[in-house]
Amino acid sequence: MYPLALLAAAVAIVALRTRALPRWLGYGSAVTAAALAVNAGFLYATIAPAFLLFILWTLAASVTLFVKARSQAVHLTPRPAPVAS
User: Fold this and answer.
1) DSSP summary character for residue 20
2) Which of 7, 30, 32, 81 could pair with 12 as two cysteines, CB 3.0-4.6 Å apart?
3) Tell me: the pLDDT tens digits for 20-55?
C-alpha cells in the first residue's frame, strides 16, 4: 500500500498547487494517502479500509475527469479538403 500512498500524495500535491483538479479532490487524495500509509504499517491486516477509500477516491476522480472532459469537448464538423490549384 505504500506505492498507492505515494501516488495519492503526489496527486494531492499537484492538484492543490496547480489547481488542475478540483480542491475537494486534492484534499481527498491527501486524506487517502495518509490512510494508506497508516494502513500499510500493519503487517497482518486482513481488512484494508484504506484500500476501499482509495477505490472510492479513484471512482470520484474518474467521474470528475470524465464529466469535465465531456463538457469541454469541442465538436468539429468535417470540411472538405481545399482543392490545390
Assistant:
1) S
2) 30
3) 889 999 999 999 999 999 988 887 766 778 889 999
Q: To the nearest 10°, the Cα dihedral for 31, 35, 38, 39?
A: -170
Please tell me the number of Cα atoms within 13 Å of 1 on its side-chain side.
23
Taking the C-alpha atoms of residue 47 and residue 79, their distance in angstroms, rounded to an integer, is: 57
**Grid cell in block for residue 17:** 498547487
Distance between CA atoms of 8 and 68, rounded to whole angstroms?
20
Nearest to 58 by CA among 40, 36, 73, 39: 36
Look up cell 483538479; give the residue: 21
* Amino acid letter, residue 13: I
Supply φ then ψ for residue 52, to 5 degrees: -65, -40
Q: Which residue has 506505492 as its cell numbers?
A: 3
This prediction has a pTM of 0.76
